[in-house]
Task: structure prediction
Amino acid sequence: MADRVSRICSRFKTDRAGVSAIEYALLTGFVAVAIISGASVLGGHASSTLNNAATGFQTASTSAPGAAGAAPTQAPGASGGGGSTVATFHKP
Result:
């Protein structure tokens, strides 16, 4: 019995197939951690950049000539009296 256990232990010490599998598993784990941390860092920066761009577009669209909320001006040459008045928006 002791001889059989000795042979099994000897074979286990010389078997290198499991070592490669463990190394690949550890390497895969490290790569996964690197990808996840990189994505979270870059994702935060991308979100901030896109939010800043969206705010810029909203500000530009509300303050642009002809946008909702901009004051219309009377067309040059239009009379100030009754009748129809043409409203136009002038670019600065």
Q: What stands out?
A: Residues 17-63 form the longest helix (47 residues). The CA atoms of residues 72 and 89 lie 6 Å apart. The two ends are 99 Å apart (CA to CA). The chain has two helices and two strands.
